[in-house]
Amino acid sequence: MSAWAAAIDNQSYENDILFIQAAGNISSSTIKHFLQHDINYPDYFKEDAARISNPAQSLQALTVGSVSSSDFETKDLIALGRMDEVSSFSRCGPGIWDTIKPDVVEYGGTQVCTKDHKMPLLTTPPPVCPELLRKSPEGCAYARDDVGTSFAAPKVASIAARLEQLLPDSPALLYRALIAQSARWPTSADHISKETALSLIRHMGYGIPDLKRATENDDYRITLITPQLLQLGEGEAHIFQIPIPEELSAIDKDYDILLEITLSYAAKPRRTRRRVNGYLSTWLDWRCSRMGEAAENFSRRIFDTGKRVDDDGNFHWAVGEQMNHGLLADISRRNGTLQKDWCLLKSNQLSDKFCIAVRGHKGWSSLFKAKYALAISIEAIHRDVAIYEPIRAEIESE
Fold this sequence. Notes:
The structure is a single chain. Helix content is 24%, strand content 22%. By secondary structure, the protein is of the alpha+beta class. Helix 3 (149-166) packs across helix 4. The chain is globular and about 65 Å long.
């Protein structure tokens, strides 16, 4: 880990600060070099020169990449990146130790290139630029004349600012969790191949965050949070239980449900270590109960079998805890300190007492516990069954 990124991680841990930073830009000269050597968009994102820049590899900062908001094309020119595709200049992951970086993306524009790549010319006409407030030079109050990940990051920061207004007594780790929880890949990414999914997570992280999903519930979606900062040490665990009402969990109910879980934690870093479990004082992960498993049995598994509990609750998670599991077979969620995963299931696959455990593991020092926040969302995909009110009533009656 670089000294700059490690300093960000240490400040995040010591002072509960959320750093929101740009993933960095690939220079125009580098992009031209790729195109001249027949390394075209988006293939050049596989090159080392396109990896996220320092200090964007910081584990505990929220790193923001950029996507295009235009399908611009003329007889001689074409945008490098169609609508909702990675921007031509946006640096991509994975991050250090194969962590998911960038964490999220926003609309930062893209570049336009001549269709003849022998002598490529990169420009940024207004249709491919995001509309931004102008501070300088003097001119109109708004303008569309520049692009970059530096314009994407403040859009995500505005969501964090709104969350701080709504939850002023909650930790910054929760703001990070809710931003990631609200993020989605573009709708065009539904029903995708494993290869495409891997490309999306490397280019976009968890996707484009949404202010409404980050800050509101509705009749068909509920997000449950840990409002205060929690801590875990090595060998410790916390178990959270969500009562699932009978109108959802009954055997004859088969509503399509989206389940999303995000763990956001910070630990004391030690820069001299070469692996993630040595870099962090205590590292965390999460597990959920299996389909139909009683809460007592899940608790017994977590506390009695300890490290042998390596299953993902037999759900088909998109990322998965192990490298060979999930839709993203080459990525593991546990390497990072922002661990989001999601899956589609039938409502009757949720037990009446669905449980999630957050566990602490040995890092470089047991003296410094990890601090964390957790968010869990349950959503009726087709908006055909009420979610919020039944679960709220069950929780209040417990």
